[in-house]
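Recall the central idea of this unit: under ordinary conditions, the amino acid sequence of a chain determines the structure it adopts. In this exercise we apply that idea directly, starting from the sequence alone.
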Amino acid sequence: MNDTNLYNEAEDLTEEDNANLQSIGWELFDLYDRAYNNHFEDENLNKIIEYNIWNIYDDIWNGMTFKESLSGYDINK
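Accordingly, the structure predicted from this sequence is:
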């Protein structure tokens, strides 16, 4: 998957009738936005996203929010 596919998947999910899928779509939009457009001021958070984007993606699909997943990573590991 690439950044365009991530954006398209997020967009498609937000248009679903299922509230859970819509929620996943919005969380994926948050991930996409922070990864490609609206970076954090904290460079360590940006590095976590850069090195773990697809792990965070998996976490979101497994029921975590973007912020919950992000807080589970340590750039110093």
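The two ends are 25 Å apart (CA to CA).
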